[in-house]
Amino acid sequence: MSYSSWPSRLGERRRPLRSNSTTPSSRSRACSCWVTAGWLTNIERSGRRLSPSREGQLLYEMAQPLVESLDGLEASFRDKVRGLDAGELHVAANSSTILYLLPKIVEAFRARHPAVRLTLHNAISADGTDLLREDAVDLAVGSMLDVPADLSYAPVYRFEQRLITPPDHPLARKPRLALEDLSPYPLILPPRRQVTYRLVDLVFQQARVPYTVALEVGGWEVIKQYVAMGMGISIVTSICLTDADHDKLATRSLKEWFPTRSYGVVVRKGKYLSPQARAFIELIQPDLFAPRSYEDSGPSER
Could you state one GO biological process linked to this protein (predicted)? Predict the structure, then answer.
Protein backbone atom coordinates (compact mmCIF):
# COMPACT_ATOMS: atom_id res chain seq x y z
CA MET A 1 0.00 0.00 0.00
CA SER A 2 1.37 3.40 -0.99
CA TYR A 3 0.78 6.73 0.69
CA SER A 4 1.20 8.54 -2.63
CA SER A 5 -2.25 7.53 -3.84
CA TRP A 6 -4.10 9.41 -1.09
CA PRO A 7 -5.69 12.86 -1.57
CA SER A 8 -3.91 15.74 0.07
CA ARG A 9 -7.14 17.32 1.39
CA LEU A 10 -10.68 16.12 1.92
CA GLY A 11 -13.11 17.18 -0.81
CA GLU A 12 -10.52 17.66 -3.58
CA ARG A 13 -10.28 15.51 -6.64
CA ARG A 14 -8.20 12.47 -5.84
CA ARG A 15 -4.61 12.94 -6.94
CA PRO A 16 -1.21 11.62 -5.97
CA LEU A 17 -0.03 13.09 -2.65
CA ARG A 18 3.36 14.79 -2.96
CA SER A 19 3.68 16.57 0.38
CA ASN A 20 7.06 18.17 1.01
CA SER A 21 6.47 17.85 4.74
CA THR A 22 6.51 14.07 4.81
CA THR A 23 9.40 11.81 4.00
CA PRO A 24 9.23 8.29 2.56
CA SER A 25 10.10 6.90 5.96
CA SER A 26 7.29 8.80 7.68
CA ARG A 27 4.79 7.71 5.01
CA SER A 28 5.89 4.13 5.47
CA ARG A 29 5.40 4.37 9.23
CA ALA A 30 1.94 5.90 8.77
CA CYS A 31 0.92 3.06 6.45
CA SER A 32 2.21 0.53 8.95
CA CYS A 33 0.02 2.12 11.62
CA TRP A 34 -3.07 1.53 9.46
CA VAL A 35 -2.16 -2.10 8.85
CA THR A 36 -1.15 -3.04 12.39
CA ALA A 37 -4.13 -1.23 13.92
CA GLY A 38 -6.57 -3.06 11.65
CA TRP A 39 -7.85 0.19 10.11
CA LEU A 40 -7.91 -1.02 6.52
CA THR A 41 -11.63 -0.24 6.48
CA ASN A 42 -10.61 3.41 6.33
CA ILE A 43 -9.20 2.84 2.84
CA GLU A 44 -11.34 2.64 -0.29
CA ARG A 45 -10.49 1.24 -3.71
CA SER A 46 -11.20 3.38 -6.77
CA GLY A 47 -10.37 1.34 -9.83
CA ARG A 48 -6.73 0.34 -9.50
CA ARG A 49 -5.97 3.04 -6.95
CA LEU A 50 -6.33 3.11 -3.18
CA SER A 51 -7.61 6.23 -1.44
CA PRO A 52 -8.73 6.99 2.11
CA SER A 53 -12.37 7.09 3.06
CA ARG A 54 -13.74 10.12 4.90
CA GLU A 55 -12.77 8.52 8.20
CA GLY A 56 -9.40 7.56 6.78
CA GLN A 57 -8.67 11.13 5.69
CA LEU A 58 -9.54 12.38 9.18
CA LEU A 59 -7.25 9.78 10.73
CA TYR A 60 -4.48 10.77 8.31
CA GLU A 61 -4.79 14.44 9.26
CA MET A 62 -4.60 13.52 12.93
CA ALA A 63 -1.62 11.23 12.52
CA GLN A 64 0.44 13.37 10.12
CA PRO A 65 1.90 15.77 12.76
CA LEU A 66 2.84 12.84 14.98
CA VAL A 67 4.53 10.99 12.14
CA GLU A 68 6.40 14.11 11.03
CA SER A 69 7.61 14.73 14.58
CA LEU A 70 9.25 11.30 14.55
CA ASP A 71 11.30 12.36 11.54
CA GLY A 72 12.59 15.39 13.44
CA LEU A 73 13.24 13.57 16.71
CA GLU A 74 16.86 12.68 15.99
CA ALA A 75 17.76 16.20 14.86
CA SER A 76 15.99 17.72 17.87
CA PHE A 77 17.83 15.39 20.22
CA ARG A 78 21.18 16.28 18.69
CA ASP A 79 20.39 19.98 19.10
CA LYS A 80 19.62 19.44 22.77
CA VAL A 81 22.87 17.54 23.30
CA ARG A 82 24.87 20.23 21.50
CA GLY A 83 23.25 22.80 23.77
CA LEU A 84 25.06 21.26 26.75
CA ASP A 85 28.44 21.88 25.18
CA ALA A 86 28.23 25.65 25.53
CA GLY A 87 26.19 28.41 27.10
CA GLU A 88 25.98 29.73 30.64
CA LEU A 89 24.57 28.58 33.96
CA HIS A 90 23.85 30.86 36.93
CA VAL A 91 23.33 29.29 40.39
CA ALA A 92 22.50 31.18 43.59
CA ALA A 93 23.69 29.78 46.93
CA ASN A 94 24.82 31.10 50.27
CA SER A 95 28.42 30.91 51.42
CA SER A 96 27.99 27.75 53.50
CA THR A 97 26.37 25.90 50.58
CA ILE A 98 29.12 27.03 48.21
CA LEU A 99 31.83 26.10 50.69
CA TYR A 100 30.58 22.77 52.08
CA LEU A 101 27.95 21.30 49.75
CA LEU A 102 28.70 22.31 46.18
CA PRO A 103 32.44 21.66 45.61
CA LYS A 104 32.06 18.05 44.45
CA ILE A 105 28.97 18.87 42.38
CA VAL A 106 30.71 21.81 40.71
CA GLU A 107 33.80 19.67 40.08
CA ALA A 108 31.71 16.96 38.40
CA PHE A 109 29.79 19.51 36.32
CA ARG A 110 32.99 21.20 35.12
CA ALA A 111 34.46 17.82 34.17
CA ARG A 112 31.41 16.87 32.10
CA HIS A 113 30.64 20.28 30.60
CA PRO A 114 33.88 22.28 30.45
CA ALA A 115 32.56 24.67 27.79
CA VAL A 116 29.65 25.86 29.96
CA ARG A 117 30.40 29.08 31.83
CA LEU A 118 29.24 28.49 35.42
CA THR A 119 28.62 31.44 37.75
CA LEU A 120 27.91 30.95 41.47
CA HIS A 121 26.08 33.92 42.97
CA ASN A 122 26.86 34.20 46.71
CA ALA A 123 23.50 35.16 48.20
CA ILE A 124 21.50 34.30 51.30
CA SER A 125 18.21 32.47 50.76
CA ALA A 126 16.07 35.63 50.71
CA ASP A 127 18.28 37.29 48.10
CA GLY A 128 18.52 34.08 46.09
CA THR A 129 14.74 33.92 45.70
CA ASP A 130 14.75 37.51 44.45
CA LEU A 131 17.37 36.57 41.85
CA LEU A 132 15.15 33.67 40.75
CA ARG A 133 12.15 35.95 40.29
CA GLU A 134 14.24 38.40 38.29
CA ASP A 135 15.57 35.56 36.07
CA ALA A 136 19.09 36.59 37.09
CA VAL A 137 19.83 32.96 38.02
CA ASP A 138 18.60 29.62 36.66
CA LEU A 139 18.24 27.93 40.04
CA ALA A 140 19.19 28.23 43.69
CA VAL A 141 20.66 25.68 46.08
CA GLY A 142 20.18 26.12 49.81
CA SER A 143 17.83 25.81 52.77
CA MET A 144 14.28 27.16 53.09
CA LEU A 145 11.84 27.36 56.00
CA ASP A 146 8.86 28.89 54.18
CA VAL A 147 8.39 28.27 50.47
CA PRO A 148 6.65 31.06 48.50
CA ALA A 149 3.79 30.03 46.24
CA ASP A 150 5.66 31.00 43.06
CA LEU A 151 8.68 28.79 43.81
CA SER A 152 9.29 25.04 43.95
CA TYR A 153 11.67 23.67 46.60
CA ALA A 154 12.90 20.08 46.44
CA PRO A 155 14.87 19.09 49.58
CA VAL A 156 17.69 16.65 48.96
CA TYR A 157 20.03 16.71 51.97
CA ARG A 158 19.28 16.88 55.70
CA PHE A 159 21.64 18.00 58.44
CA GLU A 160 21.34 18.04 62.22
CA GLN A 161 21.48 21.21 64.29
CA ARG A 162 24.33 21.13 66.81
CA LEU A 163 25.58 23.22 69.69
CA ILE A 164 29.24 24.22 69.50
CA THR A 165 31.29 25.44 72.48
CA PRO A 166 34.95 25.63 73.47
CA PRO A 167 36.21 22.21 74.60
CA ASP A 168 36.38 23.24 78.28
CA HIS A 169 32.94 24.88 78.39
CA PRO A 170 30.49 23.77 81.15
CA LEU A 171 27.88 22.76 78.54
CA ALA A 172 30.41 20.44 76.90
CA ARG A 173 30.71 18.41 80.12
CA LYS A 174 27.06 18.44 81.19
CA PRO A 175 25.69 14.85 81.14
CA ARG A 176 22.18 15.75 79.99
CA LEU A 177 21.45 18.93 78.13
CA ALA A 178 18.24 20.98 78.31
CA LEU A 179 17.34 23.95 76.16
CA GLU A 180 17.18 26.10 79.31
CA ASP A 181 20.85 25.33 79.95
CA LEU A 182 21.81 27.46 76.93
CA SER A 183 19.98 30.53 78.21
CA PRO A 184 22.77 31.99 80.44
CA TYR A 185 25.39 31.93 77.69
CA PRO A 186 25.64 34.52 74.87
CA LEU A 187 25.06 33.23 71.36
CA ILE A 188 27.03 33.99 68.21
CA LEU A 189 24.70 33.73 65.24
CA PRO A 190 24.52 34.64 61.55
CA PRO A 191 22.65 37.87 60.67
CA ARG A 192 18.95 37.84 61.53
CA ARG A 193 17.82 37.76 57.86
CA GLN A 194 19.35 34.32 57.49
CA VAL A 195 17.49 31.05 58.04
CA THR A 196 19.62 29.97 61.04
CA TYR A 197 18.80 33.06 63.08
CA ARG A 198 15.08 32.76 62.31
CA LEU A 199 15.10 29.06 63.24
CA VAL A 200 16.89 29.67 66.55
CA ASP A 201 14.51 32.48 67.42
CA LEU A 202 11.48 30.32 66.55
CA VAL A 203 12.58 27.39 68.73
CA PHE A 204 13.42 29.52 71.77
CA GLN A 205 10.21 31.55 71.44
CA GLN A 206 8.04 28.43 71.16
CA ALA A 207 9.73 26.93 74.23
CA ARG A 208 9.48 30.29 76.03
CA VAL A 209 13.16 30.17 76.90
CA PRO A 210 15.02 33.49 76.94
CA TYR A 211 18.26 33.83 75.00
CA THR A 212 20.89 36.47 74.30
CA VAL A 213 22.68 37.18 71.05
CA ALA A 214 26.10 38.69 71.76
CA LEU A 215 27.37 38.83 68.20
CA GLU A 216 25.96 38.58 64.67
CA VAL A 217 28.48 37.65 62.01
CA GLY A 218 28.28 36.03 58.59
CA GLY A 219 30.11 32.81 57.73
CA TRP A 220 30.33 29.55 59.65
CA GLU A 221 34.12 29.57 59.63
CA VAL A 222 34.17 32.95 61.37
CA ILE A 223 31.56 31.81 63.90
CA LYS A 224 33.52 28.65 64.68
CA GLN A 225 36.70 30.66 65.17
CA TYR A 226 35.04 33.10 67.58
CA VAL A 227 33.47 30.24 69.56
CA ALA A 228 36.87 28.54 69.81
CA MET A 229 38.26 31.81 71.19
CA GLY A 230 35.68 31.72 74.01
CA MET A 231 33.58 34.67 72.83
CA GLY A 232 30.31 32.73 73.05
CA ILE A 233 28.48 29.57 71.97
CA SER A 234 26.60 28.90 68.76
CA ILE A 235 24.01 26.69 67.12
CA VAL A 236 25.16 25.53 63.70
CA THR A 237 24.16 23.07 61.01
CA SER A 238 26.31 19.95 60.96
CA ILE A 239 27.10 20.61 57.29
CA CYS A 240 29.80 23.05 58.43
CA LEU A 241 31.53 20.74 60.93
CA THR A 242 34.64 18.91 59.77
CA ASP A 243 37.18 16.58 61.35
CA ALA A 244 39.53 19.54 61.83
CA ASP A 245 37.00 21.15 64.21
CA HIS A 246 37.16 18.36 66.79
CA ASP A 247 40.38 19.63 68.37
CA LYS A 248 39.13 23.18 68.99
CA LEU A 249 35.38 22.71 69.48
CA ALA A 250 33.00 20.57 71.49
CA THR A 251 29.69 19.70 69.85
CA ARG A 252 26.37 18.49 71.26
CA SER A 253 23.28 17.29 69.45
CA LEU A 254 20.18 19.52 69.63
CA LYS A 255 17.84 17.23 67.70
CA GLU A 256 15.52 17.02 70.72
CA TRP A 257 14.54 20.69 70.17
CA PHE A 258 15.65 21.63 66.67
CA PRO A 259 14.40 19.97 63.49
CA THR A 260 16.91 18.83 60.91
CA ARG A 261 17.75 21.42 58.28
CA SER A 262 17.05 20.50 54.70
CA TYR A 263 19.09 21.71 51.74
CA GLY A 264 17.85 21.37 48.21
CA VAL A 265 17.12 22.98 44.86
CA VAL A 266 14.83 25.97 44.33
CA VAL A 267 13.38 26.92 40.93
CA ARG A 268 10.70 29.32 39.79
CA LYS A 269 7.43 27.59 38.97
CA GLY A 270 6.69 27.57 35.27
CA LYS A 271 10.24 28.49 34.28
CA TYR A 272 11.80 26.45 31.48
CA LEU A 273 14.96 24.80 32.76
CA SER A 274 17.82 24.99 30.27
CA PRO A 275 19.79 21.83 29.40
CA GLN A 276 22.66 23.23 31.49
CA ALA A 277 20.40 23.70 34.53
CA ARG A 278 18.95 20.21 34.15
CA ALA A 279 22.43 18.71 33.89
CA PHE A 280 23.47 20.48 37.10
CA ILE A 281 20.34 19.32 38.97
CA GLU A 282 20.90 15.79 37.68
CA LEU A 283 24.23 15.74 39.53
CA ILE A 284 22.50 16.71 42.76
CA GLN A 285 19.71 14.15 42.39
CA PRO A 286 18.46 12.53 39.18
CA ASP A 287 14.84 13.21 38.17
CA LEU A 288 14.43 15.74 40.99
CA PHE A 289 11.77 17.75 39.16
CA ALA A 290 10.47 14.96 36.93
CA PRO A 291 6.67 14.77 36.51
CA ARG A 292 5.10 12.55 39.16
CA SER A 293 1.85 10.65 39.45
CA TYR A 294 -1.04 11.87 41.58
CA GLU A 295 -0.34 9.23 44.22
CA ASP A 296 3.30 10.33 44.52
CA SER A 297 3.60 13.18 46.97
CA GLY A 298 6.62 14.58 45.09
CA PRO A 299 9.23 16.93 46.54
CA SER A 300 8.37 18.39 49.90
CA GLU A 301 8.03 22.12 50.17
CA ARG A 302 8.99 22.30 53.79
Answer: regulation of DNA-templated transcription
